[in-house]
Amino acid sequence: MNNWPYPHIVAHRGGGKLAPENTLAAIDVGARYGHTMIEFDAKLSKDGQIFLLHDDNLERTSNGWGVAGELAWSDLLKVDAGSWFGGEFKGEPLPLLSEVANRCRQYGMMANIEIKPSTGTGTLTGKVVALAARELWAGMIPPLLSSFDIDALEAAQQAAPELPRGLLLDVWRDDWQAITTRLACVSIHLNHKLLDEARVRMLRDAGLHILVYTVNQPARAAELLRWGVDAICTDNIDTIGPHFQP
Ligand code: G3P
Ligand code: CA
Prior knowledge:
By secondary structure, this protein is an alpha/beta fold. It has helices at 24-32, 73-76, 97-107, 122-136, 150-159, 176-182, 197-205, 218-227; strands spanning 9-11, 37-44, 50-52, 110-115, 144-147, 165-169, 187-191, 209-213, 231-234. Strands 1-9-8-7-6-5-4-2-3 form a 9-stranded mixed beta sheet, covered by helices on one side. Helix 5 links the parallel strand 5 (144-147) and strand 6. Helix 4 packs across helix 5. It starts with 8 loop residues before the first strand and ends in a 12-residue tail after the last strand. The relative contact order is 0.16. Bound molecules: SN-glycerol-3-phosphate and calcium ion. SN-glycerol-3-phosphate (G3P) is lined by residues 12, 39, 41, 54, 114, 146, 168, 189, 213-214, 233. This is Glycerophosphodiester phosphodiesterase. It comes from Kosakonia calanthes. Keywords: Hydrolase. Its EC number is 3.1.4.46.
């Protein structure tokens, strides 16, 4: 099995449920709880800046509106991505990937960068994010790149083949092995509901590390770790803390 430097517990969207997702404030909360790895969602602005946002649209997690990838960074940086979560986060901006890398360096945190392209931008986003990640994470443990978008993963592989990649699946695919082999993935990242113990064994026997999302129940996290899953991605960064043991 290939080298896997990452911890068992990963803070989903930075700091899960304790701060507005995919912001620097969320990463700060994750660090305060002692987490050593964060997951977050990266996409491109219309003018090629890489920033964090989960949805295609701005409405759910900010005071902006419309498709984020159709806006220039000069518009996106005016968006308040904190007030929707709570008054104390008023004015929290959408972070650039470069700012997130600086936080990771400051805290000594590892990263799982989910490449989350806006519709139709998979190849471009995969390439730009991988090239930026190579530069921004220089000298740190390499960020683990993952995506549901196979074009994005393929572009990341071509642009920065040395960065580890993981295939994300929300529904089971029987061709998982063909895809992970072609893209030279080190890991497969699955909705935990897709897994039973036999599938964990099968994936591990194929030489893949396994990350599961989004696991918010400690009993389920313990079960998955006992089965041999490598990492749990959780919103509940307080109850499933960095030292969680099955
Ligand atoms: O990377 C795991 C997980 O974050 C994927 O689902 O929708 O939370 O981005 P989602
Ligand atoms: Ca994600």
